[in-house]
Write a structure and sequence with these properties.
The chain is mainly α. It contains eight helices and two strands, in the order ααββαααααα. Helix 1 packs across helix 4, helix 3 crosses helix 8 and helix 4 crosses helix 6.
């Protein structure tokens, strides 16, 4: 190979090398930016989660500190999940959904916490008034009258078993609780996300012990 060809080959290599190095630098910078963004999003997510939990607890503090509400922990709901644990889960995620969509998240949280406030072991209690699935919303609503309930909270408790209740919920917040209640039941029956559910339960239950 002549000196001229070597020189031309060397110049061509440099011509390709410079753009390639530039592209690699851009890719490295983009990758670094993605990592930084993901870290910031994760930190923000943690902050949002913490704020969400605190605000949620402020919505239900008078309910969760009530002894009768806490007595729901003595009753099994689905599998090995207590009625109180189930209600806390439904309450919290209904709150999250309603807050996201700009609905009345406070009523969703409170109605969700009391939606199964029937206070008996439905596995071992004879169906004196009818099948549990059909009658327990009315029993829960009667029990919940010890609290000052608004119309949304009453609708949530009374119609959370829709379509079994036939009459559909009147408010979007009640629809949210209805959906989350069924979603929660599936998770409980099939033992899905148990550690996360237990963490939420203990967090709120410990809060209740502090304020009671």
């Amino acid at each position: 190979m002549t000196a001229a060809k070597i020189l031309m080959h060397s110049n061509a290599s440099r011509e390709y090398a410079i753009p390639l190095i530039f592209v690699l630098i851009l890719l490295a910078a983009a990758a670094a930016a993605v990592v930084v963004i993901r870290i910031k999003l994760y930190k923000n997510k943690s902050a949002i989660e913490a704020d969400s939990i605190e605000n949620f607890k402020s919505c239900i503090y008078d309910l969760i500190s009530n002894k009768e509400v806490q007595s729901m922990s003595a009753f099994v709901q689905h599998s090995d999940v207590s009625c109180l644990e189930h209600c806390i889960f439904v309450s919290y995620y209904s709150y999250r959904i309603c807050r996201f969509f700009g609905l009345d998240y406070r009523s969703a949280a409170r109605g969700g916490l009391l939606h199964d406030f029937f206070l008996y072991d439905w596995h071992n209690t004879p169906d004196r008034l009818g099948l549990h699935a059909f009658v327990h919303p009315s029993v829960a609503l009667d029990n919940a009258h010890i609290f000052a309930l608004n119309d949304i909270e009453k609708d949530i408790i009374k119609k959370h078993m829709w379509p079994l209740t036939v009459v559909p919920p009147r408010y979007m917040e009640a629809f949210a609780v209805t959906i989350i209640d069924k979603y929660s039941a599936i998770l409980e029956i099939f033992h899905i996300l148990k550690p996360n559910r237990l963490k939420l339960y203990l967090l709120v239950k410990n809060f209740a012990n502090v304020v009671s």
